[in-house]
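User: Sequence for Glycoside hydrolase family 13 protein below. Tokens please.
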Amino acid sequence: MAHTKKRKRTFLKTLALCLSMIAVTSAWQTPSSTVHAAAQDNNVMWSGLFHDQGPVYDNNLEPTSAQSVTLKFRTYTNDITTANIRYYDSADSAYHWVAMTKVGNDATGNYEFWQGTVPASSSVKHYHFQINDGSKTVWYDAKGPSDTEQTTRDFFIIPGFKTPDWMKNGIIYQVFPDRFYNGDTSNDIQTNDDRYNGNLAEKKAWGSAVAASAGYNNNLVFFGGDLDGVNQKISYIKGTLGANILYMNPIFSAPTNHKYDTEDYYTVDPALGSNTLLQTLVSNMHSSSNGPQGYVVLDGVFNHTGDTNKWFDKYNKWSTQGAYESQTSTWYNYYTFQAWPNTFSLFGTSSRLPKLNYGATGSAVRNDIYNNSNSVAKTYLSAPYNIDGWRLDAPQYADANGGGGSNSTNHTIWQEFRTAVKSVNPNAVVFGEYWGNASSWASTGDQWDGATNFDGFTQPVSEWITGKDYSNNAASIPTSQFDTWLLGTRANYPTNVQQVMSNHLSNHDITRFGTRAAGDIWKTYLALFFQMTYVGTPTIYYGDEYGMQGGADPDNRRTFDWTQGTTANSAVALTQKLISIRSQYPALRTGSFMTLLADDATKVFSYGRFDNTNRIAVALNNDSSRKSITVPVSKLSVVDGSTMTDKITGTVYTVSGGNVTVSVDGHYGAILVQ
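Assistant: Structure tokens for Glycoside hydrolase family 13 protein:
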């Protein structure tokens, strides 16, 4: 690789500078003495280059159309002669240049900073940097340095695009309601209740196996968890753990336990409670008297309905006529029939999930789902519910006339949906379920705020720590590949989108992390360290905080073991501590991210999170044995003789030779703060 050859050519210079990469200081100052190993010699030292859109390097991450954006770039001291910002402006579909000026050095003297300003306008812009040392030019974009200019890996400037601050700074706790806590036994579904056109329910005892007994269906197994149970356990979610965002799998009336087959969008399923109880739950989450002020996100199943929905009504349940019953039905065009009534567009292969036909802009479906004041989306965002946003189920498939989505119609739907949601609550969140690169929806500023981060978090974390992919298949990656994977997937999104990506170890569709880790709780510890210190919104799938086991669906939806829901459980206690640390330091939430060390041989991964106030070095040991890890904190502009404190153990370390050496248990971590 080109950069490998460059590192060989510049090895002696790099060694003299301790391989420093990153700088941050609260005051841009000229040091009393400067390291001069770098030289203007027609050779740019890659290891000294750095920029991201953290607060040190970008003064206005979410500008309005009237605000310019001032950018800083870091190099080794005296290593380059000129630097430029090169930005693409969608207003004229052309690239433009901004010359940068040198503005000072960091506290160590190893680095200098260059600065330039992109002028204000309402148009979307993308940018990268040109770094020059005499005749030598290096380009730098969201994936780092390159000898050749790239135009598809730029940083983003999207005026007027803001993602919710509460999501950036929050912790999501995901609840599958039937399996979390039974707060009201009077509404429990009983064995042999007719749940779905003659298909009978099975009521099972809390803690028993989730798979259905012979003669029953997995989707019709019930344990009695409900909204009252969630409400009673707010003290655990907010108080014990410190999570402040409640995301619940669907709660609206539906025959199944998972409720992705919506029967009535306007009614909470009676087995889960009532609409009034939902209001109480949201109010209690919003309260700051029972823990941190909280938020509630509901699961929006808007790509399809169930076949028992009033709009479809396959089984003549409703007094009105649905699309399946009559071609003159009010709702006939809400679905796409190839041959009425038995052949219609489906979600996936399930005939129980007829796909909604969104038609053209202004269609009845669009109005009922999100446009009208009494639409589903707006009803729950408004009083008396006042939820704080929607997680969208399978949103890439939403389309007109039975189409498969992922096209211009699909994007128009979510543009309109965003406009509708933000008209009710500008601070509401919209994030989509997506298993790959969601940039088509989340990097445009006019659709989703973020997405479920399977591709940029769940999968690489699982492969690095457990040696399994999220489906529990063998798939192991070394530390360097883990680092490269993370960098590549961060580069897919604007930074304010990265900060609200939902970072989950498990969810209701994949094998539990605890099972992928073969029950090794230390691997859960390590995963929690990373989850709570990485870029994005940590998302705890109920029970992951104590290492809950679970195979493929439906086993990943076991009941919560409340004997483990206490800080007497070491993993729960660690979760509480890590959340507390994350909440204390904005640098862990919205600060820069910089790799410090990615060592395949030792399985050590270390990185910095920093802003204008704090410099934090995280050291993770992915080996089974305790290790002494030397962290090159000079890359964070931490000076010799200063101290850093491990917030896990309380140990104070003095920086020497640009490093801090810390001993870390196997599958564990350290969080060094200055």
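Residues 304-355 form one domain.
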